[in-house]
Amino acid sequence: MLLVLSEDHKAHLSFLTKADGSVIEEFGRIALEFLRKGANPKIYEGAARKLCVPVGMVQHGVEGLMFLMTESSKHMLYMQHKHQVRCILSQLLCNQPAYHNLEWRLDVQLASRSVRQQIIPMVTIRLLLTSYDANSTHSCMDLQTDPSTLLHVISTLEAALAAMKTSHARRILRNIK
Question: pTM of whole model > 0.70?
Fold first, then answer.
C-alpha cells in the first residue's frame, strides 16, 4: 500500500528538495512544534527571513511536511495492526436485511368527482426483505411513489452501482476483505 500525495502537497514539498540538510532539519523541527503546539506565525516569519523566501512558502512547506509525517505514521500504524483490524472487521456481523422479492403495480387515477379529465399515475411497490439472523425472517415494505421520483431513485442507484465498479472502490473493498 503506497502513500499517495496530491499535486498540491508535492508542490509544497518541492521547495524542500532544493534546500540544504540543515534547512530540512529546521523544517522538521518546526513541523513537530506545529503538531505539539499548533501554528506559530512568528516562527514562519523568522524562517522566511533566514531563507529569503515568502512566509507563505515556508508555511506551505511546513504544512506539507507535517501532512507527510502524519500520513506516513497512520500508514505505519495500519501496517503494524493490519491483521487485527481485518480480524475485527470480519467478526462484525452485518445484519442488514437482504433483497428477497419485488412486486409492483401501476395505478392510474383517470378522473375524480370534481375533475373529469385528470391522469395521476402512481407506482406501488412491495419489497420483500430477508433478515439473516438466528431465524431467517421475512419483512415486507410497501412503497408508493410517482414515476418521476422512481426514475430519479433508479438513476441514483445506477450511479452508485457505477461508482462501486470503479478501480478506487475495488481497491478499497479488496483491502477491507
Answer: no
